[in-house]
Amino acid sequence: MLNHVTIGVTELDRAIKFYDGLLGLIGAKKLWSTQGMKMYGSAPDLPRVAICTPFNGEPQHPGNGTMIAFKGGSKEGVDQLYAKALELGATDEGKPGERRHHSQYYAAYIRDLDDNKLCFIHM
Prior knowledge:
Largest sheet: 4 strands, mixed
Helix content: 10-25%
Strand content: 35-45%
Number of helices: 2
Structural class: alpha/beta
Shape: globular
């Protein structure tokens, strides 16, 4: 259903270091880039994630209620992504663990360097 999602960032070079380190853990790599954007994925025909400075030139700001969830592959994978994100400068929004609303939902939540909310999940 999804082609890609785009995450707005303030400083592209800083964000590239963060997302290179984080998304490499789940097999994502650079598929292509331009001066203001970098596209990550595991294959061109699968859903992808782009980071970019806003095209309209306005300041970046995270959406209220917007969150992007990445598959961790396992509980250990969720733990690794969470730890790596914190190591790269993210802030905690919810430590890894099962969530009360769904017993099969193991997740962790962080805010990236630009305050975008990310989730790492295993179901």
